[in-house]
């Protein structure tokens, strides 16, 4: 676990980078002053570990981790909270979603906007398809939408999953076989991308959690997926080889308040989580024995988002 980036952002207005070996702070900085009321909603580290992107109240900040964590760019043009941020694999551009209904693409080399899509509904999250020419969004009107970066304006596909509630999070597996999504009522949805026009292909787990589900993520090897919730738990779901359906494999207990964010490591062996209980936890998972261990990292305030990159470049 050398050369691992474990980063957390908190309502204590700091972003901290942690050492895996001794849980000490490697570096920290304030992302806003004590007089400001804006908070960071999401952070993400680029594939090559050079950049940190932070999604704030109406801007994205880009920090260069190889240049003393220096602020490189501020991307504005948003009218409301920026809810998610991510990077193209070779660092050509950064993408983000916002509660103002927009999905934007920005060039890493300069400030400004390369492309804007208008979802018309507040967008909770956007992720990049492995083909890197499509984006997949989750919005508060209950839709998952697919956007083609080669085309203008409108989405190319809309999947109405939870119209009365809204989709909180969406994830797509690395081999692009299927996606998962979750809503605020505790429902989990899984569907093969090749069958999105077939309603019968949609697997819906109606009571995946007892409260809001805040995030879902498919493991890098696509053998499991994780969800976290306001019910204070993290759940690991795996494929039943007989039915080819996802079912609950394991529930992780340890956080004492809402679990806001989760992220798998590159091989699915580790899962990073953070919570309103002011702790982030790095869980070591064992599929065969179902044994779990974790180490803790503490802030002075709610820890609402994180970034985890243990790729050996």
TrEMBL record:
Transmembrane segments: none annotated. Pfam families: WD40 (PF00400). GO terms for biological process: regulation of actin cytoskeleton organization; TOR signaling. Keywords: Repeat, WD repeat. Signal peptide: none annotated. CDD domains: WD40. WD repeats lie at residues 1-28, 75-108, 116-157, 206-247, 252-293. InterPro entries: MLST8, WD40/YVTN_repeat-like_dom_sf, WD40_PAC1, WD40_rpt. Coiled coil: none annotated. The keyword Nucleus does not apply. SUPFAM superfamilies: Putative isomerase YbhE. GO terms for cellular component: TORC1 complex; TORC2 complex. Belongs to the WD repeat LST8 family. PANTHER family: G BETA-LIKE PROTEIN GBL, TARGET OF RAPAMYCIN COMPLEX SUBUNIT LST8. This is Required for amino acid permease transport from the to the cell surface protein.
């Amino acid at each position: 676990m050398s050369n691992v980036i474990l980063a957390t952002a908190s309502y204590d207005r700091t972003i901290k980078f942690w050492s895996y070996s001794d849980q000490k702070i490697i570096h920290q900085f304030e992302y806003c002053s004590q007089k400001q009321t804006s908070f960071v909603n999401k952070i993400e580290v680029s594939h090559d570990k050079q950049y940190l992107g932070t999604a704030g109240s109406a801007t994205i900040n880009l920090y260069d981790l190889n240049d003393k964590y220096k602020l490189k760019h501020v991307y504005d043009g948003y009218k409301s909270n920026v809810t998610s941020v991510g990077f193209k694999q070779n660092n050509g551009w950064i993408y983000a979603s916002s509660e103002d209904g927009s999905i934007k693409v920005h060039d890493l080399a300069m400030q400004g906007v390369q492309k804007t899509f208008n979802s018309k509904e507040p967008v909770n999250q956007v992720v990049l398809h492995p083909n890197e020419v499509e984006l997949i969004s989750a919005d508060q009107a209950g839709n998952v939408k697919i956007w083609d970066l080669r085309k203008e304006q409108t989405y190319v596909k809309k999947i109405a999953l939870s119209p009365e509630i809204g989709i909180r999070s969406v994830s797509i597996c690395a081999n692009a076989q299927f996606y998962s999504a979750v809503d605020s009522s505790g429902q989990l949805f899984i569907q093969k991308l090749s069958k999105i026009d077939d309603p019968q292909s949609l697997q819906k787990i109606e009571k995946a959690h007892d409260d809001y589900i805040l995030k879902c993520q498919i493991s890098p090897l696509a053998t499991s997926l994780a969800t976290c919730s306001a019910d204070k738990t993290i759940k690991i779901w795996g494929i039943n080889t007989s039915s080819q359906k996802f079912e609950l494999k394991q529930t992780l207990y340890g956080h004492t308040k809402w679990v806001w964010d989760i992220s798998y490591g590159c091989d699915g062996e580790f899962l990073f989580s953070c919570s309103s209980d002011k702790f982030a936890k790095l869980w070591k998972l064992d599929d065969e024995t179902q044994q779990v261990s974790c180490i803790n990292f503490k802030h002075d305030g709610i820890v609402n988002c994180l970034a985890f990159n243990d790729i050996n470049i």
